[in-house]
Automatic annotation (TrEMBL), chain A:
Protein name as it appears in the record: Serine/threonine-protein phosphatase 2A 55 kDa regulatory subunit B
Gene source species: Odocoileus virginianus
Signal peptide: none
Family, similarity comment: Belongs to the phosphatase 2A regulatory subunit B family.
Top-level taxonomic group: Eukaryota
Database matches in InterPro entries: PP2A_PR55, PP2A_PR55_CS, WD40/YVTN_repeat-like_dom_sf, WD40_repeat_dom_sf, WD40_rpt
Coiled-coil ranges (or none): none
Keywords: Repeat, WD repeat
Automatic annotation (TrEMBL), chain B:
Pfam families: SERTA (PF06031)
Coiled-coil annotated residue ranges, if any: none
Entry protein name: SERTA domain-containing protein
Native organism taxonomy: Eukaryota, Metazoa, Chordata, Craniata, Vertebrata
Amino acid composition bias (Pro residues), ranges on this chain: 114-123
Length: 447, 198
């Protein structure tokens, strides 16, 4: 990949008909399941929409397995906490899929306060030939029944049913920012600003507190938890990130309350870049283990960093997402953009990392070739099935024809949520209320 | 005021980007004061019917502490044309921030709210219906200084709405933030009309 290389990305966009943005439609999370067959999105209105990849068919060779809507349901409703006179937003903060154990699919969805386990099942057969009821379900007159028949299952149109199986409520005083399913497939954790709880998937009335960073005196509070995740293979290890830019790897075997980290990952501050905003921009907004489990990826305001679990002193790689914003931090502080929380993602082979930016741009970095590309997710710049063109932000100096200048970036168009298919080069990008799915035509066989 | 602030702001930004910065003591101080104003404005504005983002508050708090430290270190030139409402020499910024975080705790935490020694409710506040003493307390302790609103109530006859003066002060509800346009604001307005009318 490079600025001038043809990335051969194909755009399958799922765009709603609205020309204005209703706040409820703003997508707040995107997540592929473990096979990549399903893609779930959550929005500000508390709804979850699941897309399913159609199997590639010989009849339409260029359909290439498109994603179509599979199911839509209302996961969370707005609530009001009467005791504290506070509204609880229905916005879905995170969705995590459970590994599939039978024909049904399950996922966890959470808002600020409550986590729910949803079971998604398919029904494509219907029993017919009852003895006591007729076709419409009315009871038959028994005197007309002269023989017995065995009801038979007949095929019907596919019906997808979603039901809430568990509601994990009252576990958090502060706002939940992350959930992560353990590799043991029995437990999961939920993290809010100050505490992390461990739950058993089958038990809703009880959870174990495993991290608590709340100070005795709230006036002494200077740091909050921003994200957390279980290690993909070691069920006893998890990491959590903080607003001060540090990562703590914890081992649940060491103690019941994991307030003492096993490892602390922190990069010393660069004194030449020191400003009043140094801490805010160092706040980690997302942390993701690599698929291999050997590395961690973090996103702070201006960079993405790759950390080696064996080296705590500094990241092994740092990539600049939009360093041209460094001189604009004052304005970005004033308009609150400096508090935006961007997510980051690994590709299936951990060789490429991706994150979103402003102006509907998103960035990809190839860890091997050290090349990077900026792409745009917008209706204006790409038609369905068109190849995406690399974009460039010019920071002064020589300006090329299609360059965007820093001052004309639209900071209301932010790509906070992105996801990468677990195995193939398919990415899902949430741009406000629109979902874009891009596929890599040429490289789908290469890893 | 927002427009004025923005204009001042882009001036500061241009200063930042120039090769030669005018970081004279006056320039630096006005930059820091602008940041201080923006920060405090943020804290005020972020309070609403929804529980505020703790992360945002903590980050702003830490920035305010840095600003306070910097303002103490930089020499104070002639008083700026718009004095900060908190006062130059004597404002207890950490106390202000502290009270904000304490109020956050009482609004969000499951434990009993701690006593607030900063601004004990004045006697007039006790007799008003539920949301009002808290709104006034929050307003007075954080914005206008403790003596701000007491004078306002001196000549208002509250005997019409006075209930049982012997009662213990009501537990302040956890919603300490009364945004203009909210139902508490409208109710307060309504009550004030009744009081002033009688």
């Amino acid at each position: 990949m490079g600025e001038d290389a043809d990335t051969r990305k194909i755009n399958h966009s799922f765009l709603r008909d609205h020309s204005y943005v209703t706040e409820a439609d703003i997508i707040s999370t995107v997540e592929f399941n473990h096979t990549g067959e399903l893609l779930a999105t959550g929005d500000k209105g508390g709804r979850v929409v699941i897309f399913q990849r159609e199997p590639e068919s010989k009849n339409a060779p260029h359909s290439q397995g498109e994603y179509d809507v599979y199911s839509t349901f209302q996961s969370h409703e707005p609530e009001f906490d009467y005791l504290k006179s506070l509204e609880i937003e229905e916005k879905i903060n995170k969705i995590k899929w459970l590994p599939q154990q039978n024909a049904a699919h399950s996922l966890l969805s959470t808002n600020d306060k409550t986590i729910k386990l949803w079971k998604i099942t398919e029904r494509d057969k219907r029993p017919e030939g009852y003895n006591l009821k007729d076709e419409e379900g009315k009871l038959k007159d028994l005197s007309t029944v002269t023989s017995l028949q065995v009801p038979v299952l007949k095929p019907m149109d596919l019906m997808v049913e979603v039901s809430p199986r568990r509601v994990f409520a009252n576990g958090h005083t502060y706002h939940i920012n992350s959930i992560s399913v353990n590799s043991d497939c029995e437990t999961y954790m939920s993290a809010d600003d100050l505490r992390i709880n461990l739950w058993h998937l089958a038990i809703t009335d009880r959870s174990f507190n495993i991290v608590d960073i709340k100070p005795a005196n709230m006036e002494d509070l200077t740091e909050v938890i921003t994200a957390s995740e279980f290690h993909p293979h070691h069920c006893n290890l998890f990491v959590y990130s903080s607003s001060k830019g540090s990562l703590r790897l914890c081992d649940m075997r060491a103690a019941a309350l994991c307030d003492k980290h096993s490892k602390l990952f922190e990069e010393p501050e660069d004194p030449s870049n020191r400003s009043f905003f140094s801490e805010i921009i160092s706040s980690v907004s997302d942390v993701k283990f690599s698929h291999s489990g050997r590395y961690m990826l973090t996103r702070d305001y201006l960079t993405v960093k790759v950390w080696d679990l064996n080296m705590e002193a500094r990241p092994i790689e740092t990539y600049q997402v939009h360093d041209y914003l460094r001189s604009k931090l004052c304005s970005l502080y004033e308009n609150d953009c400096i508090f935006d929380k961007f997510e980051c993602a690994w590709n299936g082979s951990d060789s490429v990392i991706m994150t979103g930016a402003y102006n509907n741009f998103f960035r990809m970095f190839d860890r091997n070739t050290k090349r990077d590309v900026t792409l745009e997710a917008s209706r204006e710049s790409s038609k369905p099935r068109a190849v995406l063109k690399p974009r460039r932000v010019c920071v002064g100096g020589k300006r090329r024809r299609d360059d965007i200048s820093v001052d004309s970036l639209d900071f209301t168009k932010k790509i906070l949520h992105t996801a990468w298919h677990p195995a193939e080069n398919i990415i899902a990008i949430a741009a406000t209320n629109n979902l874009y799915i891009f596929q890599d035509k040429v490289n789908s066989d290469m890893h | 005021m927002v427009g004025g602030l923005k204009r001042k702001h882009s001036d500061l930004e241009e200063e930042e980007e120039d090769e030669k910065w005018d970081w004279s003591p006056a320039g630096l101080r006005s930059y820091q004061q602008a940041l201080l104003r923006i920060s405090l404005d943020k804290v005020q504005r972020s309070l609403g019917p929804r529980a505020p983002s703790l992360r945002r508050h903590v980050l702003i708090h830490n920035t305010l502490q840095q600003l306070q430290a910097a303002l103490c270190l930089t020499p104070a030139p002639a008083l700026p044309p718009e004095p900060l409402f908190l006062g130059e020499e004597d404002f207890s910024l950490s106390a202000t921030i502290g009270s904000i975080l304490r109020e956050l705790e009482t609004s969000m935490d499951e434990t009993e709210p701690p006593q607030n020694p900063e601004a004990p409710p004045s006697p007039q506040n006790e007799v008003l219906p539920q949301p009002d003493p808290v709104f006034l307390e929050a307003l007075s302790s954080r914005y206008l200084g403790d003596s701000g609103l007491d004078d306002f109530f001196l000549d208002i006859d509250t005997s019409a709405v006075e209930k049982e003066p012997a009662m213990a002060p009501p537990e302040p509800p956890h919603n300490l933030f009364c945004a203009p346009g909210s139902w508490e604001w409208n109710e307060l307005d309504h009550i004030m009309e009744i009081i002033l009318g009688s």
